[in-house]
Structures are given as structure tokens and as C-alpha cells.
Amino acid sequence: MNSSWRGLIDVADVAPGIPLALGVELRQRTPYRPDDWAPRRVESVHPRALLGRRDDLSLGVRPLMRSESTGMWIKGQVSWESVRRPGFGFDPAHARWFSDLATLLLGVRTVGPFADPGEWLTLDAVESSLLWPHLRSARTAGIPLVATSEHQSVALGYEATAAIDVTDAGEALRLRTHVTVDGVPIEDAVIRPVGHIGIYVATLDRDPLPILLAPCKLPDAARSLLSHDEGLLIPAEEREEFLADGLPRLVRRARVTAARGITLPAPPQPTAVVTASFGDDDVEYRIEWSYPGVTRLAYDSGSHPDRDPAAEAEIGSGLETVWRETSDAPFAPTGRLNDTDAAEFATRILPGWGALARVRVEGNAPRRVYTELTGEPAISVSTLESDDPDWFELGVLVSIDGRAVPFGPLFRALVRGRKKMLLSDGAYFSLAHPALQRLRDLIDEAGELAEWETAPRINRHQTDLWSEFEDLADQSEPATAWRELAAGLRGTETVPHTPPPTGLEATLRTYQQAGLDWLAFLWRNRLGGILGDDMGLGKTVQLLALAAHIRDQGERRPLLVVAPTSVVGLWSAEAARFTPGLRVRLIEETSTKRGSSLAEATGDADIVVTSYALVRLDREEFERIDWSVVILDEAQFVKNPRTQLHRAVGALRADAVFAATGTPLENGLTDLWSLLSLTAPGLFPSAPRFSEAYVKPIEQGKMPENAEGGPFRAARLARLRRRIRPLLLRRTKALVAPELPEKQELELRVALDPEHRELYDLTLQRERQKVMGLLQDLDRNRFIVFRSLTLLRMLSLSPALISPQNAHIPASKLDALLDRLVEVAAEGHRALVFSQFTSFLRLAADRLDAAGIAHAYLDGSTRNRTEVVEGFRQGDAPAFLISLKAGGFGLTLTEADYVFVLDPWWNPAAEAQAVDRAHRIGQERHVIVYRLIAADTIEEKVLALQRRKARLFDAVVDDDALFAQDLTADDIRSLLDG
After folding, report:
1. Residue pair 133/189 in contact by the 8 Å Cβ criterion
2. What is the pLDDT of residues 634-656, one digit of tens each?
3. Domains by residue range for the chain, with CATH
4. For residue 101, what are the contacts with CB-CB under 8 A and spacing of at least 6?
5. Does pTM surpass 0.85?
6. What is d(CA 911, CA 893) in angstroms, rounded to the nearest whole number?
7. Strand positions, DSSP E, 573-652
8. C-alpha angle 631-633-638 in degrees, rounded to nearest 5
9. What is the pLDDT of residues 391-444, one digit of tens each?
């Protein structure tokens, strides 16, 4: 075999194969004889046979092959089976053509009832329109159509038409199918159908008998008449009935021609009949089609020979238009409607249908009079004190066109998302009015819906809602206590002044005095809140001032401060400094270890200070005591509502709970909800509803109007800011402490060593391939994904962090840090050095030791934390190495004026906490912050993500900037991109 390319184009001289032809034969079954039990035969039709008998005809086809000896077309070895099998030597193109024809014919039951399927196939029952193009392609393939009988001939026409001809037969009428083939009328011939797609014609008085095949559209009526060679006679006594009833329907079904004097009627037109059956509160209806002389047809009953699809579509369009102008539900030709839908059907839809042409309405009248109210809703609201001090009863009165609307049914209709409401007297109205929709939104925000089933109520924490109820209502009358509370919380400038308590040994700055006023006002009204001042502005002294004020007011129950373990001692020291007259008790062990109950240990304490860990471990003990106030310091520690710690804090009993944190939002809006659920539990009672109303529209918006900067998102963001503003006090250093020295923040890009770069790039490609396939189900694979991200972050710092075998590869970031710390020390400055990775901090400590630079060190394992901190503050070591987790809060280190952040994190609040250890009240020098970024690594991606997430805090708390969302799969893709 020639395997070169020449073998593909050098075609050998091979015989083309045995040519084939399509044999065609008009056949007829032998007459039936009662005394002859033998099977009836099928024979070729002789021209003279058609003169005497024209029944039991069929048109058969079979393959023929050319005789090598005579050149004649013969049966030979060819059959319908052999053309499908190789090895018989037939022309390949011819064999494929016959194989396709056999498939086409056998697939539609064309084996004749009296033919051997192995020899003959018949065309009489074929319905596939593919038959005609396939037959025409025979000529192109070189396959002739030949008659198998010497008394017949065969030809293929291009197009035939069929019409039913109506002629006079004396007083009677005669119906006959008139056929033309290629424009020539067919006379004196036997015409038979090929399914509904064509005809074959055998012309009489010819020998050989000409057989002509042609495609033709044959309606049922025209096809049936082909079996009546002499036509179908309509008796004289049925003539008028046929002309009045039968002929119009026949005109619909087929093409009809008529002799002179016979007028063809227009096809019958449909009428849509609407039958409506009204009950007490509902209506059942159906639409049907009515045609003259025809039983009613279902609206969507499918094909029917008497139907006029175009006319039905025109009428149906009018019916559907009336429906859509009135109802939001999809149009249906049958159905049962209740309540407001029944009322609207009776007053608007049914009259609209009755006014349409070719539509008839039948049925009974409604059993009651329905009236649509279209006036503007008049709304009045009021509040009344209730037995529950945390709730005010909310009165809502609505009237439309002078009719009072009962609130209970209105409330249920609004909550269930109904479009309309029906009153007991038959009046109904739309709930889509903007005022009613706004009322529904406010109801949804005001409280749990289950509580409103008995009576509308508004929680005392929801003071901002009242102003929106007032804006909505035409009249409003708040209760006296509510009016005072709402007015006081509209802004800190309206809060009554609270004189500094007698035991406070500190001069409060103006903003700190405003903070005390706000805290005291909330406490007097049994409200909690979030003190969210910037870090370093003295939140502790404001809260201690509140503690002293509470004691001055005669409160004898202790105040509880819950703080991170590392900050508990700081509270004791600050209390001794600012409020020395208050008795402070530190609780640093569980009741079991102390051997005494919490009540016994606290005794007559004014302030009890403990850790979050102890509140969780000794939960029952803390729950038993009735605290005057609970203060949650560094409250971001309880931001996860699914933890035991959050549940333990939520179980504490107190008149008010205050959260103190500079970062009320770290990752997402759920952080904010978590803190508010502890400090203002009535503000957003339901986490799922908060998620639907705020988290999803603001953080997860996908639609254009919901995207960043979109109108819907902006509206939800503005509403959220209004809701939280009365219960969140936030002041920035730039606003209230302009005397603070400037803080300069710099980003220092550090290029990796070449060997370090090669290792990083290889690791990045490997981790990217692993992580990308896991992001479809981030919740399930979060641990694996974050482990890969952490690996890349550590590798950005130093190869030694991921394997001791890489310890020889230089860490450029340590070199850069050492260079700058040498300068800092030489110039007499001091620096804080932060990293999230204690292993990297230890590497940095080793480098400083080797360079002879003194330093302090603090991480989570440090036991003598206070001594280490004081050692740095009182000493002269130029550097303090601090892990971000251990030293990001609870420290005041204004002795330092340089801050080095060795590795960025996507939570900007964590870095801000660290930086503000130095840049806070008491700092007198210019603070310089260096962020060391490994160039062309994941750290640059983290920095970009950090900037975007920083807008989350600003948008809700500080200003009207755009929003950001929590760390998502898209965020992770961006971290690993490129």
C-alpha cells in the first residue's frame, strides 16, 4: 500500500460498480371471489383493466440492476436488503441512494398490505415530504425511473394542485377533486393519493399506460374525493342543506371552485363565547370557540379542520389585552377566581370582553355589587405607652374614598404580598399605591411579623422609624415618652447635657463630654448602643465617666465590663486613674477555681471587669446577676452570632448594653447586625430579614440598579445609615482631634531575590490550579482555599517559613526592615513592628539580635504582657515586635513614632488597630507608617482588595462612600490572578 500523500490522489482505474434503476409499477389486487379460498394476488395493471375496474390499486417501487449481457433492467440479485449490504458490487452512490429511500419508506409504514416487503414497497401511504426531493435527486445520481411492465411508462412531475370542484348535476350537485400537474388539467385519468403529500395519475385509453407522479398538498376532503372517480353526488333534496352548512365548512377545509351560478360562501368566522358562573365570593369561567354547525371547541384545543387560526388569534389578542390591562396574573382561558380577583373580573375584565367584536358573554350575574376604590389612601398613625417598657403600641388608621380599612386584614394582605384587597361590602382597592407599599416596608422593619398579628408595635430602639411613619401619615400623634426619646436621638446635639460626675478625675474634651451626654441619655431610657469612636480618642474614659454618673444617680447594681484577656488589667489601671472612688473587682478565674460564687466575689463592687473567655466558661454565674450596664470592650470579639460566646453575652441581664469598638464592621454587615443584636436587640430583631433587606441588596447586588452606585443599593444604604445613626456614635480623629500630629502612610515595594522569585512563581502556579477548581463550593472548601492563600502569603515573606530547606534563600523584606530600623535607631526614634505571623516575627528578632538592635517582643504566648509593654514604654529599645493578634488592641504606645506593617491583610480594620497603637491622644510627634509589600506577589493583590473593603466601614459609619463586600470567590480569584 502506498502510504505517501500520492496515494491519496492517485485513483486506480476501478470499475464503477453495477448501476441501479428504480422500478415503478402500478399494481392491482385480483378481484374477490367468495368461492375462491386462495390468497388474492397482486398483478401489474394492464391498460384495459382500468376500463373495467379501478379499486385495490397501489403504486409499487423496487430496485433494478442492469444486465451485463443484455443491458436490460432486471431483478437479478438486487433487493431492498442487498442495497444496504456491501459485497454485491453495486455502484456505491446508487446503493446509498436506495438505502436512503428504503429507510424513508419503511420508516412510515409503507409496506403494502398485499406486497412482499422484501421485493416491493408502495408509495400510497407515504407522508414524508422528503420523498419528492429524493426522487428528483435520482436523475443527478444517474438513476433512471423505469416501468417494470412493458405496458406501462413512468414520469415525475414537478408540482400538482388539487381543488374540489362543485358543479350542477341537474337538481343535484356533484363534487369532484380537480387536479392539474405542472399547469395541465388532468382529464380521463385515474388519480390516487400519495399520503397527503402527492398524487399519481394513470391516464386512460393509453398503451403503454402513462403513470405520472407529482407532489401535491392534499387536504382530507380533497384526498377522500379521489377515490370517487365519478365524483360524489349530493342529492337534490340535500342541496340547500349542503349549500347552507356543508359548503362553508368545506371552503374552510380545502380549495373549492364552483360552476357558474353557484356562489361560494366566505369561510365561517369564529365567535369567542365566555361563560361565567358567579358564586358567593368566586367566579368560574371558560372561553370556547363557536363556529356555525360545529360543536363548541376548547380555546386551546389544537388543530381542527374547521378552525380559523388567524381569526382566533385576532380575537384572542383582544381578550388577552383586556386581561393584561387589569390583572398581573398570566392569562388563562379557563379558571376559578376568588376575592379581589373575582371582583376585578366582574367589574373590569368581563365588561371589557363584552365590548369586543365577535365575543359573546354568557352566564349568571355576580351575587353582590363590587365597587373599585381609586382614591388616595389617608393614613394616620399614633403611639401609646404599653405594658412592656421596651415597646410602644402603634396605631395605624387607613381610609380610602371615605371607607375605613380594618388594619388587621390590611396588615395581612400587605405582609403576604397581595396586590389588591377586598372589603366585606364588596369594595376593593389596589395595594400598589406608593403610600401603602411604604407602609408595608415600615411595618416589615418595625418588628417581627408574628408580634404584629395581635397589635402593631414599634420597639424603643427604632426611634428613626417614627420620623418615617410621620412622613408617611397625613396625621400623627406620638406618645409623650416616645416623642421625647425620638427627639433626643435625632442627634447628639439634642441630647440633654450630663454634668461630669463628681468622682471623675479627668477633664473631658468637648467630644468626650458629648459622648457622656449620649451614653447617659441612652442609659436613662434603657437603651444600648455602639460607641464607635476612632481608636485612640478615649472611649475608656467616656465609659468610666458613665459608670461614675450611674453611681451618682443612686444605682447600686454593679456595672460589668467584658474585655479581651489582655486588656482586663488595663481597665483596672484606667479606673484607678480616672475614677479612683469606684470599687473595681477583677474576675480572672471561674467560680470553681475561686471556690466562691460570682456574687460573693464581686461583693459591693461598682465595676466588675472580666474577660470574654470567663463569661463563656462561667455563663450561668454571670447570668444570675442583675447588672446595671454591660460594657463590651473591643466588641469585635463577639461579632460571630453563631458562637457560644455571643450567646453567653446575649444572655446577660442589664438595663443597657454598650459596645466599645473602633471597628464595628470588619468584614461585612453581619458584623454590625451581631453587635446591634446585643446592644439594641429590638432594632433589627431578625437576622434573615436583615440579610434580605440589607446584606443581599448592598453586599451581593448583581443587577445594574443594585450594583455599586446603583439607585436601589444607594437607597438601602441610606436607610441603613438612618436606622443605626441614633444608636451608633462615631467620631474620627480628623474630626475631633485635629491637634494630633500628622500621620504619613507609605508603601514600600520590596523585590524578591531571584531564587525566592522562582520558588514563589512555581508555588503560585501549583496553588492556583488547585484552588480554582474549589471555588464553586467555597463554603465547603474554605479551609483548603485559605490554607493555600496563607501558604502564598508566608512565602511572600520568607521561603524559610514554608520549609527549613529554604532557609538559605534570602528574605528581602527582612533586609529592607533592618535597613530602616538602623536609621530609626540612629536618629533616636522608636518603632512598632507588626506581623500576623509569629514565625516571621521571630526571624525578624533573630536579625535584630545579630545586628545588635535592642527590641521588645510580644505575641499571644507572652505571659508577662504588662511587664513587656511597660518595659518598652519605660526603656529605650528602638523596636517593639508585636503580633497583630496579640497587640492590635488594648495598647497605648505613643512612645513610638514609626510603625512597620510587615504583611498586609484584607481586613483593613486590623491594620488600623495596629497603627493606632502609636497614633492616638498623647502622641506629640509625626507618625510614619511603612507597609512593606513584596512586589509582584499575592501581597499586592491583598492590598488592592484591602482598599476596596475599607469602603465598607466608611459607607455605613463615616460617610457616603461606596460599599464593598466580604471576601468572596471572586475576591479569591483576583488574589490568584496573574
Report:
1. no
2. 888 888 888 899 999 989 999 88
3. 20-156 (no CATH), 160-258 (no CATH), 271-369 (no CATH), 372-488 (no CATH), 492-736 (3.40.50.10810), 743-976 (3.40.50.300)
4. 22, 61, 134
5. no
6. 15
7. 584-587, 607-611, 626-633
8. 95
9. 555 667 788 888 888 777 877 777 777 888 888 888 888 888 877 777 777 766
